[in-house]
Amino acid sequence: MTKRNLVIVGNWKMNKTPTETKQFFTEFTKLYEKEASKIDPTTWFGLAVPAINLVIAAENKVAKKMLVAAQDVHQEASGAFTGDLSASMLKAVGANSVVIGHSERRAYHHEDDALINLKTQKALKEHLIPIVCIGESLKEREQNIWKDVLQKQIKGAFTNINNTEILKVIIAYEPIWAIGTGKTASADQAQEACQYVRLEIEKLFNKQVANQIIIQYGGSVKPENVAEILNKPDIDGALVGGASLEANSFIKLLTLNK
Ligand code: PGA
Question: pTM for the whole thing?
Answer without folding.
Answer: 0.97
